[in-house]
Amino acid sequence: MMKYIVLYSSRTGLTKRIARSIADALPAGTPCLPVLQAPADIASYDCLFLGCWMHADEPDQIADEVLHQIRNSHLALFVSLHGTLFSDTIAKKLHHIVEKLPDGIAIEGTFITSMEEDMISSDANLEFAKTFAENTLDRLER
């Protein structure tokens, strides 16, 4: 069985709530921690679920510093941002994250959530995050 960890950077609390929903869908005991509390042995996890929030077109500063250091072979990204989820700018924003990663990192999935008021308070949003984690887990465990 693969080892998973969920790390997140959150300003408003939304990304933290998404992270906890993701961790709930992963095997029992999966760590769910702020990026600044990441364990020293982070590379020993087979898959890292990394959450951040976007400021303009860039990931937040804390997550940005971690992106260059990722050595896990599998990565699942979840991102909170302002704006419409169904727009061309989403792909551009994700590209800004991906281009910061070292070579050889397989991105196993992405989950984007809006920081608009109706999504912040939405329980459905948390269920979508769980489904994202379950689907990612299913693909990796096949």
Brief description of this entry?
This protein has helices at 14-25, 61-67, 88-98, 117-120, 123-141; strands at residues 4-8, 32-34, 47-55, 58-59, 74-81, 106-114.
Task: Outline the structure in words.
With 142 residues, the chain is an alpha/beta fold. The chain has one domain (4-137): Rossmann fold (3-Layer(aba) Sandwich). It contains five helices and six strands; from the N terminus they run E-H-E-E-E-H-E-H-E-H-H. Strands 1, 2, 3, 4, 5 and 6 form a six-stranded mixed sheet that branches. Strand 3 (47-55) and strand 4 (58-59) form a beta hairpin. The longest helix has 19 residues, at 123-141. The chain is globular and about 35 Å long. The N and C termini lie close together (11 Å).
What distance separates the N and C termini? 11 Å
In sequence order, what are the helices and strands, one letter per element?
A: EHEEEHEHEHH
CATH architecture: 3-Layer(aba) Sandwich
Mean pLDDT: 88
Strand content: 25-35%
Q: Tell me the number of structural domains.
A: 1
Largest sheet: 6 strands, mixed
Computed Rg: 14 Å
Structural class, by secondary structure, is alpha/beta
What fold name stands as the CATH topology? Answer: Rossmann fold
DSSP summary, beta strand count: 6
Q: What's the total helix number?
A: 5
Question: Helical residue percent?
Answer: 25-40%
So what's the overall shape?
globular
Fourth-tier CATH superfamily name: Flavodoxin domain
CATH class: Alpha Beta
Uncertain residue ranges: none
